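Revision sheet: structure tokens.
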Amino acid sequence: MRLALSGIACAVALLTVVPSVNAEPPAANNVCLDAGNIDHYSFPDDKTILFHMNGGKVRIWRNDLPRACPGLKFEQGIALEIRGGMICSNMQVVYVLRRWTPCFLGAFTPYTPPPKDEMSGRDKSNGDRH
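Predicted:
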């Protein structure tokens, strides 16, 4: 009797772990970036990742993380698993380098850097000194 109950418990546990075959596909408005076209990343704060592209219509894609990702701006680096050569919004996890904090990607939106003050080279919106 115990053997039968443990077998049923294992089957129930497997059913809760295995994803449904009928799982819904990703939303149509999700943006996927070709990982081979990414030149580099930048991290203006702990909630934003900028994906700088090698070409294409959009030169920089902004990803707004759903929550702050501790250490992202300080460490200035991420690790991620790329499947099928694509990085997709709202579907992947990135890890902060040296801390391995997991953070979910949010929505991708095209990004245009703020104009710089021609005399000083500073970002007009926040006094950035580049």
